[in-house]
Amino acid sequence: MISPRTQPGSFIATSELPARRIDLQRMRVRTGPELSWRELRRLVSGEGLEILDELPGTELVFTARGARGARGDGAREACRMRVDPDGWGGAWITRELRAVDPKGARLRKTGLLRPGAWRNLSVRLGEGASIEETLPFPMDERIASPRVRRTLSTTIEAPPSRVWPWLMQMGCRRGGWYTYDRLDNGGVPSADEVIPGLQQLRVGDLIPWKPDGRDGYTVLALAEEEFLVLGSASLLDPFRHPDSLYVDTWTFMLEPIGAEATRLMTRIRADYPPGWQMSVLSSWLRFVHGVMGRAQLRHLKRRIETREARGLTGLRSGLRSV
Asked: Using CB atoms within 10 A as the burial measure, which of 90, 125, 129, 166 is most buried?
């Protein structure tokens, strides 16, 4: 058996497992954690695999029969399966495969790791990624019937505490928008590190979207390591902006996946008076948010995971982590 176990919420200790990760998959399912665990446990048992350790209801580590070293002193390959609640009634399932020799991994031939098996499991438990479009986000109610609405998301292999600082420093003339810098940051490259001096935002602050710093998004709401809502200043104080025709919100939601990953979701909602000019604007907005939004998530994921892989916290060397 592998021991000792780590604290609840973390993976079982893996000091005796192969250090090389060759596959990592995470998926959201609609089925709750308890039923999802039962299904996973049933599938593993049905494959006749050798169970190395188990945290009932949460995590299972197993290997293929005969996958231990010649002296039986450790598994040459192992798979970890974990179930975590997603906060919305469903669950997150994580599958991680480690092996000394990736080419000779026998576990790839078992039912749970064969090509298509992960997708089949998602179908059986209810694919959950699509529910992100309908999840309630903070301040959604301020634009009850938006003419424009789009939700994008990505999974980042770092806890929310490591993701949050990158959101706090967003903005032109700040850390950048992590999209296409020639278009939205005056050609200045977005930051590749967390900047301690840009970690304080308050409701009402303006985050510039142009190099001149005169226009931008207003901070409408925020909760540390949970959500950040940007948007039209008129949503905070309509009396100061009585003639505002176009209103929008841009929300960043951080959902923890266990103790070591984050689902980062972004949503834009906008409303405006009817008319052909505004219809053209909304079409352009959908296109821009789709292209720029996906680039932003992709670039954030790369920056954060690269620093995590290097064993950094996201702050400059010698500074306390945020």
From this structure: 166
Question: Among the listed ranges 200-214, 223-237, 280-294, which one has the minimum average pLDDT value?
Answer: 280-294
- Could you give the angle at which helices 33-46 and 117-125 cross, rounded to 10 degrees? 140
Three-class secondary structure assignment of the chain: CCCCCCCCCCCCCCCCCCCCEEEEEEEEECCCHHHHHHHHHHHHHHCCCEEEEEECCCEEEEECCCCECCCCCCECEEEEEEEEECCCCCEEEEEEEEECCHHHCHHHHCCCCCCCHHHHHHHHHCECHHHHHCCCCCCHHHCCCCCEEEEEEEEECCCHHHHHHHHHCCECCCCECCCCHHHHCCCCCCCCCECHHHCCCCCCCEEECCCCCCCEEEEEEEECCCEEEEECHHHCCCCCCCCCCCEEEEEEEEEEECCCEEEEEEEEEEECCCCHHHHHHHHHHHHHHHHHHHHHHHHHHHHHHHHHHCCCCCECCCCCCC
Higher pLDDT, 174 or 186: 174
* Burial track 215-240 (b if 16+ CB lie within 10 A, e otherwise): ebbbbbbbeebebbbbbbbbbbeeee
Residue the block writes with tokens 């710093």: 213
Contact (CB, 8 A) for 253 and 227: yes
Phi-psi region of 171 (alpha: psi -120 to 50; beta: other; left: phi over 0): left
Is the pLDDT score of 256 beyond 90? Answer: yes
Residue 288, token pair as written in the block:
């821009």
Q: What is the average pLDDT across 63-72?
A: 60
Distance CA 299, CA 169 (A): 14
**Mean pLDDT estimate for the chain:** 82
What pLDDT is recorded for position 161? 96
Neighbours of 214 (CB within 10 A): 9
Report all structural domains of the chain as residue ranges with CATH numbers, in order of start. Answer: 21-130 (3.30.310.80), 135-309 (3.30.530.20)
